[in-house]
Specification:
The structure is a homodimer of 159-residue chains. Chain A is mainly alpha-helical and 159 residues long. Chain A has 2 domains: 1-40; 41-158, Arc Repressor Mutant, subunit A. Chain A is 68% helix and 6% strand. Chain A contains 6 helices and 2 strands, in the order ααααββαα. The first copy, chain A, has a two-stranded antiparallel ribbon with strand order 1-2. In chain A, a hairpin with a 7-residue loop joins β1 and β2. Chain A is globular. Chains A and B meet through α1, α2, α5 and α6 of A and α1, α2, α5 and α6 of B. Chain A binds a DNA duplex (30 and 30 nucleotides) through α1, α2 and α4.
DNA sequence: CTCCTCTGGATTGATATCAAACCATTATCG
DNA sequence: CGATAATGGTTTGATATCAATCCAGAGGAG
């Protein structure tokens, strides 16, 4: 998703133009990174699919689709689709929620956990190479600012 | 496109885990920002469509689709599709290249230029609000590092 | 000049994404 | 209790994106 601005800013007050460049860079980085990771992922996993497996493996499964959609910042419709694909691959199981007839629960299978581990292993070479361009100290400088920006966007979205 | 990692890192050497978080943040920011911009764009313009109009307006039109695809970092197939939509909206015209029978040229129309200006005007309120979370100085700190990362990803991609 | 290759575009099929509309179930309120 | 509202999931239709494939025109090697 290439973001606004060919690579420079537009006819706008200086501060806004700078922000436009920021969003532009972020868009290009996201596109390049997504592509780089998906090309090495096992089982044809996409980043969206991996994100679900990784969340379940690290922070616990047995969540409802609605909870996962909130966490991953996608609509429920989007999640329905991706969960369906993971289910076909037998990486998760979707079981009805006993307490709430509307709801379901997402359960990680053993194969799903293995796929997630394999995906992380496959991504390692990219990350190791990336360290040359982005040494630890630099990432630590970047992260807090980006987290602030993300939080602001998230808050501004709903307001 | 939510990026790797629920929001934390994975079972990996520390530096790689940090980088994973970086890509994760960037993915979420991109998703939120794309959404925020597209909701206010006039004429149902998408970011991809705006990027083409903006490039033509700022850096000159009359380029071939192949050149634009390289500049915008998308495949030619993707560009074919988006150019088709812009053409339907009468924001560009696609004319045959006189010198090369295979090639075409993308020309910005007057309506296209107006749509691009209107899109920038529509994005201004978002950018102005964003300045609160991201003051000028902070953006200036971020940009060089992100540009480095983008350049590295671009170089690593082709190698 | 003729073949063979390269390059420019278009097409196809898959995935992700959103908004909007939809149905089922639960929760709330009068 | 019964009607209304809120919530959980799904579906549909649009767009963007990629890889792979395909065709047509241009360029080079004999």
């Amino acid at each position: 998703m290439p973001e606004p601005g060919g690579s420079e800013a537009a006819a706008a007050p200086d501060d806004e133009a700078l922000l436009l460049r920021l969003f532009n860079e972020i868009g290009i980085i996201n596109q390049l990174a997504t592509n780089a990771f998906e090309r090495v992922m096992p089982h044809g996993l996409t980043i969206a699919q991996f994100a679900i497996l990784n969340h379940c493996a690290r922070l616990g499964d047995n969540k409802t689709p609605a909870q996962l959609a909130d966490i991953l910042q996608v609509t429920r419709g989007t999640l329905t689709s991706t969960l369906g694909r993971l289910s076909e691959k037998r990486f998760i199981r979707i079981v009805p929620d006993e307490e709430d007839g509307r709801s379901k629960r997402v359960v990680l299978t053993a194969a799903g956990r293995r796929a997630r581990d394999a995906a992380i292993a496959a991504a390692m070479p990219i990350l190791s190479r990336a360290r040359d361009a982005m040494p630890r100290a630099r990432v630590q400088d970047l992260l807090p600012a980006l987290e602030d920006l993300r939080r602001w966007l998230d808050a501004d979205r709903t307001s």
